[in-house]
């Protein structure tokens, strides 16, 4: 089952930061991980797991998934299911500067 992705303002802003010529490699990694998330958030490449210390604005369970190379484990996406049954909301994208 596939999901539609929605982005919070924060996540959308972070995504736009990578849409520049000098950030294309990072944008490609991020888009690849978003595509996997959209297809199946339980894919092993994402290493998705529930993030227990934070909840969504409506009390949703928040999940954490890795972006790109899981061995590097330096980028993460935080997301939750909903608001619709076939939707995932990407709340935040973190990366080291």
- Identify the CATH homologous superfamily: RelE-like
Low-pLDDT sequence parts: none
CATH fold-level name: YaeB-like fold
Order of helices and strands: EHHEEEE
The whole-number mean of residue pLDDT values reads 89
Overview of this protein structure:
By secondary structure, the chain is of the alpha+beta class. It has a single domain, classed as YaeB-like fold, CATH 3.30.2310. It contains two helices and five strands. Strands 1-5-4-3-2 form a five-stranded mixed β-sheet. The longest helix is centred in the N-terminal third of the chain and has 16 residues, at 24-39.
Give a nutshell description of this structure.
With 97 residues, this protein is α+β, with helices and mostly antiparallel strands.
Based on the model shown, name its key terms.
alpha+beta; Type II toxin-antitoxin system RelE/ParE family toxin; 5 strands; 32% strand; 97 residues; YaeB-like fold
Blueprint of the fold:
Elements: E1 4-7, H1 9-17, H2 24-39, E2 49-55, E3 61-66, E4 76-81, E5 87-94
Parallel strand pairs: 1-5
Antiparallel strand pairs: 2-3, 3-4, 4-5
């Amino acid at each position: 089952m596939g999901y539609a992705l929605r982005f919070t303002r924060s996540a959308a802003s972070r995504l736009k930061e990578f849409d520049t010529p000098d950030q294309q490699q990072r944008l490609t990694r991020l888009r690849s991980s978003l595509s996997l998330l959209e297809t199946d958030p339980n894919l092993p490449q994402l290493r998705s797991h529930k993030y227990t210390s934070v909840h969504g604005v409506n009390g949703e369970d928040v999940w954490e998934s890795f972006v790109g190379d899981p061995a590097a484990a330096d980028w993460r996406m935080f997301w939750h299911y909903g608001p619709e049954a076939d939707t995932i909301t990407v709340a935040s994208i973190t990366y080291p500067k």
